[in-house]
Amino acid sequence: xxxxxxxxxxxxxxxxxxxxxxxxxxxxxxxxxxxxxxxxxxxxxxxxxxxxxxxxxxxxxxxxxxxxxxxxxxxxxxxxxxxxxxxxxxxxxxxxxxxxxxxxxxxxxxxxxxxxxxxxxxxxxxxxxxxxxxxxxxxxxxxxxxxxxxxxxxxxxxxxxxxxxxxxxxxxxxxxxxxxxxxxxxxxxxxxxxxxxxxxxxxxxxxxxxxxxxxxxxxxxxxxxxxxxxxxxxxxxxxxxxxxxxxxxxxxxxxxxxxxxxxxxxxxxxxxxxxxxxxxxxxxxxxxxxxxxxxxxx
Length: 298
Fold this sequence. Notes:
The chain is mostly beta strands. The chain has one helix at residues 2-33; strands spanning 38-45, 47-69, 75-80, 87-88, 93-98, 109-112, 117-122, 129-130, 137-152, 164-169, 177-184, 194-202, 213-230, 235-238, 241-247, 253-263, 267-272, 279-283, 293-296. A six-stranded antiparallel barrel has the order 2-9-12-11-10-13. A four-stranded antiparallel β-sheet has the order 6-5-3-8, with no helix packed on it. Strands 18-1-19 form a three-stranded mixed β-sheet, with no helix packed on it.
């Protein structure tokens, strides 16, 4: 009985092994049947778009107007009448100084604001000694802000007063703030060959604050382009010589040399080589050649 049992188990094990081997052979046969030279690609349509040519540069935000307030007399800080974040108007008292000369009684001396805005910072605690050289508070007018950037010399010919600019800050991801070039320095910084440029942005919500890190997108050209393609569709074969690939009815990729115009990170204007609404391959281009077999994912 023991011998019969052992033989039965051996037969079952052999049968299982043969089944697994058969499955592996079937899967391998299926893989072998697939075309190894067919590319999986995605396609889109060449269509009209309004394109903007831009370049990105980093800078910092600063209130349009800022004023550090100093007392007119020496003494002690008697009170911070306003604190950080409080709105203030020009000539309104921000702090009060108490003169402390022995044997003489003086009226408290106010420290007035020199502009409309908000108190950005108070520097001293009550009782601190002050002189006319001691900063008491900072007042900022953030109804508009300036973003200062250093533009490389090679872009100077594309920058002009009144030019449109877009700005983003980390505090509000995905939100764009629009402004214009308000100042272009007439001289270059010889140390790094850049030109200081300022962007003026309306800030009625007060979201943009002095000291913020900003990314500025300067718009240096625009075009109402009748034929555009996603930038991912372009293949640069040699410097400034581009081609795209067009899918055919028999599932082949055809190489098309094109001449491009305006180009940004997302799209490129096609000036020759394609017709409106022509289908083009936008992904799966790696290794693709003229005449390659393709399968377009839909």
